[in-house]
Amino acid sequence: MKLTGAQALIKSLEMEQVEVVFGLPGGCILPAYDPIIESSIRHILVRHEQGAGHMAEGYAHVTGRPGVAMVTSGPAATNLVTPLCDAFMDSVPMVAITGQVPTTAIGTDAFQECDTVGITRSVTKHNELVMSAQDLPLAIKEAFHIATTGRPGPVLVDVPKDVLTSTMDWEWPDDVDLPGYRPSSKGHPKMIKEAARLIVESRRPVIYAGGGILKARAAEALKELAELCDIHVVTTLMARGGFPDDHRLALGMPGMHGNYTAVTAMQRADLLIALGARFDDRVTGKVDGFAPEAKIIHADIDPAELGKVRRPDVPIVGDCRLIIEELVKAVKDLLASSEQPDRSEWKQTISGWQEKYPMTYQPAEEGDALKPQFVLETLRDSCPSDTILASGVGQHQMFASQYWKFNHPYTWVNSGGLGTMGFSVPAAIGAKVGRPDKMVWAVDGDGCFQMTAQELVTASVERIPVKVAILNNAYLGMVRQWQEMFYDERYSEVYLSHDIPDYVKWAEAMGCVAFRCESPEEVQPTIDKANEIDDRPVVVEFRTDSSEKVFPMVPAGQTNDQIVVPPFQEGPHREVVQ
Amino acid sequence: MSTGYAHHTLVVTVENKAGVLARVAGLFARRGFNIFSLAVAPTDDERFSRITIVVDVESATVEQITKQLFKLIHVVKISELHPAESVERELLLATVKAPPESRGQVLELVQIFEGRILAVGHEQLTVSLEGHPTKIDDFEELLRPYGIIELQRTGRVALPKLERQAPRLRAVKGKVS
Predict the structure, then answer these.
(1) Could you please report the per-residue DSSP string of A424-473?
(2) B68 and A304 in contact by Cβ < 8 A?
(3) What is the CB neighbour count within 10 angstroms for residue B74?
(4) Is residue A387 within 8 Å of A530, Cβ to Cβ?
(5) Closest CB to B15 among A125, A179, A302
(6) By a Cβ cutoff of 8 Å, what residues of chain B touch chain A?
(7) Which among A119, A216, A332, B170 is least surrounded, fewest beta carbons within 10 Å?
(8) What's the rounded Cα separation, in Å, for the pair A472 and A209?
(9) Nearest residue to A102 (alpha-carbon basis) of A154, A158, A25, A153
(10) Is the CB of A118 inside 8 Å of chain B's CB atoms?
């Protein structure tokens, strides 16, 4: 069968069971947009290419399937760099297809030419410039294979215009040809045995669950391991939902703005069982002072993560789910002949911390602006427990992670590694496309919202009923917090204004229903109204307290022992477990 | 593996595809690793090329470099060659000042090092030397006082040393000889 390159491209996407492509056409990718008309694939026309990338990410986060973005060459490709980097940092499976100038024009500084493969090399797991239509099916098959296996990540396929217009003999390859790519999946049995031994001998163990738990679909396995060994679990920002927050063994989020117990339990542990985590600086604080007494079991599918930051005592390379399942077996074997040591003192210490330093805030006084935490708590209690929550980056993101109760995997969509402001609106749209059956809320800051809000036009036109809660504190809140705490309250370029833009008018102009909410009594009824709307996007602007800060906080560059609790919890708080 | 800074020679077999050297070099740049020398050429199998990279880092860093390199899809195989267990060679080309009064000394130096004269001018000579990188270093150092006009080194290439242990003599128990 003779096909054009463009037809072969779209057919290849169909062969990969792609159901939706987020994109925006332009000169060089134009030929590929013709066969889309007949294709079963739904195309969602975005308003900015960055939106396409984040939508693909949001889709991938909640479905586990690779998100697909397709844009043209030059500026469109460069607009995709941020989402690619975001997906790379957070190991999100994604395939990006970019148009390129014709092969004969490459290197001539042609109109809308850029070195896409060169520019995106360091922000993709792999990328490829396809120079012949005949190679397209294999390139696409390999792209999906690489994006979804091993440590997932973004893969970009750059396709010159004449490759799309030339003809080829259609043939779908049976297999990929990648001699240098053999991701391992099963952990080494000897290492697993050794890990099991450390676990049953430990007195102060903590499971440090990272995003790999979700990528490996290992939430069930993790629960089994935690319950079997009776070990507390911290879930990093990337792992929220990977272990239910309402579980008796859940400690919540660790790290710079993690809760006191999660941070301190890791710090005092004698064994950290790191599963699909990467000892990110936001989790460890100053590395030299991180969990000084802990032995480390580190399981990850990426061998380069083992020993990158902290040298593990037991490194295990492989898929987290398979490793945990083997660990469970190995621990059961050991427990058949011996018992775990008495850990009651450790448990008491943990519950003592939990009692003394709960995640709380001081409620607003009469007449004050809304507390962002109060808004999030009310929102949380008004939504189904499997609601998908997307967030941008900054204070609102931390409040969301701290105050939401994540009891189901794949309900939290956020930009962890790259910290991309503007992530939430497009990511929420992508998530809703992937899981139309679920309620999807984006929690956003006013700074973030202004970066990508135009995608709400996409949502309105495409009938994607996401809901957006803007926590409008009129500031770049996190930067303001740092300036307040570390720059003597010298506020530099962080004020954004409460009133400009008018978020309600703006949202309405984009086809959304919009509400503004300024007093505590209005919060519940406004959320209820928003939750009743299911045929179009809703935006709710909450006017929140500018001076509210995110606590606890480990100041940058300090060890986790230097954790700062909110002022009203202060007191002697650095007990050391003997 | 010993600790401390030292030369480490990595032999990286890569798929012979467009941009593969840029991927490898880019990775070094992005992760902040410094390349001391680099040599690239096709292997006997045309599907693959071999990149010989010498890095000047701690052993722990070499492990991280290796792991990061291996994540590149087009990297097929990486081996680290220890100097004691490998043969290393490098080629040097140099044009050096050789007026009549010093020409004899330059020629003698080339002769001692078993180098070659590649081109002869009235006031200059172009010489070449192939050998172990330390020998090349010595030659370069001794050549320098005569006035080097241009100098080019290839970067080292290496292969593992062949095993050539003497056949082990069978111990006969209970007998003293």
Answers:
(1) HHHHHHHHHHH-TTS-EEEEEEHHHHHHHTTHHHHHHHTT---EEEEEE-
(2) yes
(3) 24
(4) no
(5) A179
(6) 14-15, 18-19, 22-23, 26-27, 30, 60, 63-64, 67-68, 70-77
(7) B170
(8) 32
(9) A158
(10) yes
For A188-254, the DSSP string reads PHHHHHHHHHHHHH-SSEEEEE-THHHHTT-HHHHHHHHHHHT-EEEE-GGGTTSS-TTSTTEEE--
Structural domains of chain B ordered from first start:
6-81 (3.30.70.260), 87-160 (3.30.70.1150)
- Interface check for A178 against chain B (CB to CB < 8 A): the answer is yes
Q: What is the pLDDT of residues B28-55, one digit of tens each?
A: 888 888 888 899 988 889 999 999 999 9
* Residue B168: pLDDT band with limits 50, 70, 90: low
Q: What is the pTM of this model?
A: 0.93
Nearest in space to A539 (alpha carbons), one of A453, A468, A451: A468
* ipTM of the complex, rounded to two decimals: 0.88
Q: Which domains does chain A have, with CATH numbers?
A: 2-169 (3.40.50.970), 189-356 (3.40.50.1220), 372-543 (3.40.50.970)
- The pLDDT value recorded for residue B83 is 80
Mutate to test the interface with A, among B48, B59, B67, B79 (most CBs of A within 10 A): B67
User: How far is it, in rounded angstroms, from Cα A421 to Cα A554?
Assistant: 21
Report pLDDT for B177. Answer: 40
Cβ distance B126 to B119 under 8 Å?
yes
A 353-412 near B (Cβ less than 8 A): none
Q: Are residues A370 and A517 in contact, defined by beta-carbon separation less than 8 angstroms?
A: yes
Q: With contacts defined as CB-CB under 8 Å, which chain B residues touch A125? A: 71, 73
Instruction: Tell me the C-alpha distance between A233 and A272, whole Å.
Output: 10
Q: Tell me the shortest Cα–Cα distance from A533 to chain B, in angstroms.
A: 46
Give the tens place of pLDDT for each residue, A24-50. Answer: 999 999 999 999 999 999 999 999 999
Beta bridge partners of A45: A23
State which amino acid sits at residue A68: V
